[in-house]
Amino acid sequence: MTTVPNSFSMDELSKAMEDAPKEDELQAQVNNKEYTQEYVENAASDAINFAEDLVANPLVHKVMAMMIINRMVAWHSSVAGRMIKDGNSESAICWARDAGKFQSMLDSLTEICITDDDFTCIHNIED
């Protein structure tokens, strides 16, 4: 439960306002955030746990994986396209090849049924 004070001190409020970080300082902290392995893994774990709390079905994890892989296909394809425009065809081929590997992962996931009502599984769609 949140408690609300009966009163506040204008001096304390003024002091807090003076000591508060400025907007540009806060933005700089966000922009310069160091994405350590631990930070990234914790963020990913939090997202997975949140989804699991919303949907008590392992299918949510498969759908998340497919959405993430779709983003990786799009990212790698986009980088490959930029590399081609920049005349760097060797790198473009590598990026495009990796996009294809991600597409292969998606194809594999559509073959694996997680639950009887797995709407992502091609076997359930065809049956």
Description:
The structure is a single chain. With 127 residues, this protein is mainly α. The protein has one domain. The protein contains 6 helices and no strands. It has helices spanning 10-19, 23-31, 37-54, 59-85, 89-111, 122-126.
List keywords for this structure.
mainly alpha, 127 residues, 72% helix
Q: By helix and strand content, what is the structural category? A: mainly alpha
Strand content: under 5%
Order of helices and strands: HHHHHH
Domains (count): 1
Shape designation: flat
Number of H- or I-type helical stretches: 6
How many E-type strands? 0
Largest sheet: none
Distance between the ends: 52 Å
User: How much helix, percentage-wise, in residues?
Assistant: over 70%
Low-confidence stretches: none
Mean pLDDT: 86
* Estimated radius of gyration: 24 Å
Quick overview:
The chain is mainly α and about 130 residues long.
Write the SSE topology.
Blueprint lengths: L9 H10 L3 H9 L5 H18 L4 H27 L3 H23 L10 H5 L1
Helix pairs in contact: 4-5
